[in-house]
Amino acid sequence: xxxxxxxxxxxxxxxxxxxxxxxxxxxxxxxxxxxxxxxxxxxxxxxxxxxxxxxxxxxxxxxxxxxxxxxxxxxxxxxxxxxxxxxxxxxxxxxxxxxxxxxxxxxxxxxxxxxxxxxxxxxxxxxxxxxxxxxxxxxxxxxxxxxxxxxxxxxxxxxxxxxxxxxxxxxxxxxxxxxxxxxxxxxxxxxxxxxxxxxxxxxxxxxxxxxxxxxxxxxxxxxxxxxxxxxxxxxxxxxxxxxxxxxxxxxxxxxxxxxxxxxxxxxxxxxxxxxxxxxxxxxxxxxxxxxxxxxxxxxxxxxxxxxxxxxxxxxxxxxxxxxxxxxxxxxxxxxxxxxxxxxxxxxxxxxxxxxxxxxxxxxxxxxxxxxxxxxxxxxxxxxxxxxxxxxxxxxxxxxxxxxxxxxxxxxxxxxxxxxxxxxxxxxxxxxxxxxxxxxxxxxxxxxxxxxxxxxxxxxxxxxxxxxxxxxxxxxxxxxxxxxxxxxxxxxxxxxxxxxxxxxxxxxxxxxxxxxxxxxxxxxxxxxxxxxxxxxxxxxxxxxxxxxxxxxxxxxxxxxxxxxxxxxxxxxxxxxxxxxxxxxxxxxxxxxxxxxxxxxxxxxxxxxxxxxxxxxxxxxxxxxxxxxxxxxxxxxxxxxxxxxxxxxxxxxxxxxxxxxxxxxxxxxxxxxxxxxxxxxxxxxxxxxxxxxxxxxxxxxxxxxxxxxxx
Length: 709
Description:
Structural class: alpha+beta
Mean pLDDT: 79
Low-confidence stretches: 2-7, 19-42, 294-299, 460-469
């Protein structure tokens, strides 16, 4: 089952579009005058710590180096460098220099003197009116909070961390918050195709002989559990991503009503009249006459999928995942600042409960007062715990949102940077850090620890006196390549109306091409797409200019197509790939976008995936959904201009080779392109993340995928 978002909502599309338009990666803006600053060293044993001392809730700004004491694993350390950071006033928006590319924005975030913020909009756990109420105090807080050197990004549960883009100007975010009511917790219709499928599988209709529908409340709880899981998955992905952005503190301003933190519920899998346990779905597709694993009656929900999801959702342990997020946040030095936009809430549920399904007086009964109070308490507790466990501040149970936001501004207005050489071992383990201030009455919040390098990785760091050995540098590069490939996987395992995946490469004549695969999502494979569809594709450069276009057709009975985009003017660099798809019926339309880099010739970027199994009538089809079942066969292809022999192997998520046979070959396509190809049967694999490694000559490509139950 896929817990991440079943679609990207119009509001999230607007967020992404606003950010792309504002950053657009234009170089406009005044250049800031550089001022001399202390240089913080980079060394395997060197540790930087950002410290936020306060007294009575106010920053303490007159401390000196000798006022601080740093302990690592309870052992005192010698402070090597000390700097007080004074936040520059926000100043005019047009005076802030924006990063020109995604890579520049990530590089700017590594500056220890710039603060890094993420505004997390928990769309499915904020009511529409509350998202409107928080607009003005939030905009005013951002105006005061974000300085000229600071960076801020926006994320929703429907986004991957790979979509996160840091910027210095807040006008784009303010424009979005002013224009849209983005909260969807109390939405009465289902735009998410998976939510809609649950509602159709368990409609809450009373059958003959029943006083109450046997499936009453099933769809509602499944939808609410899935939404909470989506949010927690997104937060977990976010803190892991932020851990790699920089060592210093990252602040996550989280706008949400909070979470109930669902646990296992046996009642959710109770027997339902007319519903049998899931089994294999096999039938004849009336459109093609071939064997298929999909439903054969267009427009009807897939009951097997619903039943599998019902069982999986009944086993959730969100409290355990929440604790994992807290641990990951502390390791990543990320602090949460949760804000309940409802203010002083009296009830958790409205008169009409969220995600209600069914009709009639008894279809969606009101929540009792005791139960409602318990739910409200659970949500508030989750937000307070999130803040307290990560050294943040929670704005909960108050109608004065502006005052609560001012507390956040004050909390982050001043800090100190300390640096020391650790006497600990290079053991790859977590080492705790404690910072004390000798002045009485001062409370200190600081980084709680760090993950030490291993000896092998440390030897790969550049030093003046000891350059890395080739073996150590290779090991570090390989580990980084594995981490990068797995990190990008979350982008391509989301449930969307239409998915996009792509690869780029060069021909032997030196012409660059981008190959895009567009695929209709599971929730969108209804009768609206049974007649096929059309996909228009655009490749846009950093200036916003369309440099290549293409059009593909999704054949009737199929769900994907592959499109080649090429132009003699394509040069190495970062591009934005966009698709717009339209089904045979006018109401079926969707879009998606992704960033892709064309590397310098002859290096490829990315890979194209194919699947073959019962769901494809044993035909090999291109796919943009990197989730596979054990019954599938997987083929991965990488574009190449050379004819060097190819070797291929399967790796686990740690990068270790697995004893699973993988066939590697060179394949020439009818369009003149050449591909390194690897094929593997997935039957021996347990659910989890894996990589296919293709190597030819001195080149090496890692392609990550996920096996699901």
